[in-house]
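Changelog-adjacent note: as of this version, every example in the card shows the full chain rather than a window. The one below runs 445 residues end to end.
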Amino acid sequence: MMAKVRNIGDISKYNVIKNYPLLKTHFDGVIVRIGYRGYSAGVIKEDARFREHMKGLIDSKTPYGFYFMSQAVTESEAAAEAEYCYSMTKDYDPAYPTYYDSELSNQKGNGRADKLSRTDRTKIAKAFCKRVEELGRRAGVYASKSWFETRLYAAELAGYSIWVAQYNSGCSYKATGYDMWQHTDCYQIPGLDTRFDKSYCYAELEGNMEETGRKEPANGFSLSRGVHSYSLYKDGDKRILIDGRESNFRLQEFRCKDGSDEILLDSSLVEFLQKVRSHFEKAVSITSAYRTSSHNRSVNGATSSYHIKGQAADFTVTGVPNREVAKYLQGIGAKGIGLYNYTGGFVHMDTREKKYYWQQDARNGKAYGVSTFGFMETYQIKGRMVATVRYNDRNEYVRLLQEEIGVTADGIFGAETEEAVRVFQKAHCLTVDGIAGPKTWDALL
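Full-length structure tokens:
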């Protein structure tokens, strides 16, 4: 017997909904955007209406699933996105999978992941789905018909739920089977002042993997002490073991971006990163680790870079300010630490023998040596001491900002605070970047 065809909507911060029971009369289920990764800076952010939508759907007893708009450029970042999705939804009971949204970031196509090769984009989508299923949830991939056919190797993703978009009277997608077809982006519900995407669902989908439980990761392997050479093709998908125990990292996360088989890797580097992962209990996204000499030259790396030696990694921790990560590394004895202290920045850590710390405050700025990462630069605006604060920051300056701008003053710069800052900036003809810097503080105070 064929499964009943269900009408499915999907919603995000762009859908203002005042009547969720009315929504349920039109949709058998709703896929909610958890969040997204910024297409320029690459910061993972919560959808500003995610919690509001979830409360409305649960109160109206509407079945739901999730999706995440990715701009991951490495498998490590994709796995971090999957872990973020799980951390945001672990207390919910979805009826539909968690989907990886793969598409252009904007009409210009100038996002950080928009130029990925078809091969790399497919690997990244698989890394997201694999991690979602390891965490006990059903996984899927959303993309347009043309995207599946030209930007992804769809056959390699056929083991996951496929959700294809083609705005037409019929769906002509044939690269794989599919569970859902999004056929319009302008569906309207009388009484709700917003347009919806609408899909048909043809399969009986379950959000959790209740029958089989969580999938076990691939077999692990132990690193030799010190710096050694490993094979991406042979062992890349294996989980690294530390003292016989599974770490949170796979060998492929340390590979060179030029696709080379050889990976040079220092076991001490992995041990430091695992301590970071365990301390913050948040995913670590590695953006650059081992580099071949030729790749290092192509990214203008220093000729003596520790990346070439397999002793360095550039990374972020989901939801944790980079300064806090640098401070923690300093506290546990890491000797090579660089804080790239701007939106879209990261932490560099290497296993050099002689201690050196540095900081860089702008993408094209100059790095300078520092003795500690505990200091935060402040300045005076209209008699008040303030500091530049942005998404993920947690401090007294965030609390002051929240008090002045009129949102919940908890000292945590989250989605609600960023949205309020953007609205304020737009109303005062400021650059709308969601960052409270000198000009925003001046207008606010």
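Structural remarks: The radius of gyration is 23 Å.
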